[in-house]
């Protein structure tokens, strides 16, 4: 018999989803549980697991009850906590840390860069076989030159648009450099502008804008710049699918994957404001006329700075 194309007598693989309660982390946990061939350790910084009424959390609760999932409190600054969570695991999915205060450089450095060093050391000491790092396409963007038809031949110029891109690039480099040391196989995935269920930043910010007095007459023809700026966007479940594929490929196609980074997008670049239009119209907001103003420009720039003009056909 099979369940979700997995033989019922197959031995499940134990994996850890580090930062598994973040936006993409939750999506990945849900996918792994539904596949049926994983024992999933959800690791995050909260003292205890707080479940909500969402479908994915209901699924997680069921798997915890059956022993096929666990929650581990892990501070990536504490190597001993990481090692306890990793012991006996074959795969580690290293996802984004959420809710970081970007004004605190030291804390961001300790969590992103020192955290990556600790994760790598824990993988090596615990004999974890595969480590997949959720990076970002921002690591090849210098903040001023658009990228069109970008591919994996692009290199980091080590000139970034902000501190977070710099730190993520350092963490990615550490993960890739650790490949094939003490039997650890690594790779990095670079999604571009992720959106989807559980998003607490991008789409909610657009909704708040649409609800605000600044944009009560919302026009999707309002444009910052010349309106021709194209961007790639990536649905969250496509990102999580890529992580599962990467874990499998590190075993079956190791020579093509290990030690390398891969861009992940929907392969459907579009004008940024077209994307905004589709999102808001899908949520029931009607188009009208949006009038530019100082407050509106500040509001937009406050959350659009992280959306890079990365385009891949």
Description:
This protein has 313 residues and is an alpha/beta fold. The protein has 2 domains: 2-193 and 235-264, NAD(P)-binding Rossmann-like Domain (Rossmann fold); 202-229 and 269-311, no CATH class. It contains 10 helices and 15 strands. The protein has helices at 23-35, 55-66, 79-86, 105-125, 163-177, 202-211, 236-252, 254-257, 272-282, 294-304; strands at residues 2-3, 6-7, 13-18, 38-44, 69-73, 91-94, 130-134, 147-148, 185-191, 194-195, 230-231, 234-235, 260-264, 270-271, 310-311. The chain has a 7-stranded parallel beta sheet, with helices on both faces. A two-stranded antiparallel ribbon has the order 1-2. Strands 8-15 form a two-stranded parallel sheet. β3, α1 and β4 (38-44) form a beta-alpha-beta unit. α4 packs parallel to α5 (163-177). The longest helix is centred in the middle third of the chain and has 21 residues, at 105-125. It is globular.
What would you say about this model in short?
It contains 10 helices and 15 strands.
Q: Helical segment tally?
A: 10
Distance between the terminal alpha carbons, to the nearest Å? 41 Å
Q: Averaged pLDDT, please? A: 81
What is the CATH superfamily of the largest domain?
Answer: NAD(P)-binding Rossmann-like Domain
Morphology call: globular
Give the neighbour order of strands across the main sheet. 5-4-3-6-7-9-13
**What is the architecture of the largest domain at the second tier of CATH?**
3-Layer(aba) Sandwich
CATH class assignment of the largest domain: Alpha Beta
- If you compute it from the alpha carbons, what radius of gyration comes out, rounded to the nearest whole angstrom? 20 Å
CATH topology of the largest domain: Rossmann fold
User: What is the tally of beta strands?
Assistant: 15
Structural class: alpha/beta
Segments where pLDDT lies below 50 for 5+ residues?
1-8, 215-226, 288-309
Strand content: 15-25%
Biggest sheet descriptor = 7 strands, parallel
Domain module tally: 2
Helix content: 25-40%
């Amino acid at each position: 018999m099979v369940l979700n194309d997995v033989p019922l007598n197959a031995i499940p693989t134990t994996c850890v989803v580090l930062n598994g309660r973040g936006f993409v982390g939750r999506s990945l946990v849900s996918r792994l549980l539904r596949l049926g061939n994983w024992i999933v350790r959800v690791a995050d910084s909260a003292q205890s697991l707080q479940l909500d009424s969402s479908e994915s959390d209901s699924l997680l609760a069921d798997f915890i009850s059956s022993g096929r999932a666990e929650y581990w409190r892990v501070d990536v600054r504490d190597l001993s906590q990481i090692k306890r969570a990793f012991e006996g695991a074959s795969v580690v999915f290293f996802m984004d840390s959420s809710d970081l205060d970007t004004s605190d450089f030291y804390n961001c450095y300790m969590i992103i860069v020192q955290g990556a060093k600790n994760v790598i050391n824990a993988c090596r000491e615990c004999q974890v076989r595969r480590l997949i790092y959720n990076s970002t396409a921002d690591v090849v963007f210098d903040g001023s030159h658009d990228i069109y038809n970008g591919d994996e031949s692009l290199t980091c110029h080590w000139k970034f648009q902000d501190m977070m891109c710099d730190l993520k690039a350092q963490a990615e480099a550490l993960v890739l450099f650790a490949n094939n040391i003490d039997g650890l196989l690594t790779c990095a995935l670079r999604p571009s502008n992720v959106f989807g269920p559980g998003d607490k930043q991008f789409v909610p910010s657009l909704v708040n804008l649409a609800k605000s007095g600044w944009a009560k007459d919302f026009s999707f023809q309002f444009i910052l710049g010349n309106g021709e700026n194209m961007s790639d966007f990536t649905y969250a479940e496509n990102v999580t699918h890529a992580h599962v594929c990467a874990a499998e490929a590190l075993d079956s196609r190791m020579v093509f994957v290990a030690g390398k980074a891969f861009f992940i997008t929907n392969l459907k670049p579009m004008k940024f404001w077209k994307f905004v239009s589709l999102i808001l119209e899908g949520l029931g907001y009607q188009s009208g006329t949006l009038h530019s103003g100082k407050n509106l420009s500040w509001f937009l720039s406050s959350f659009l700075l992280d959306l890079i003009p990365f385009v891949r056909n």
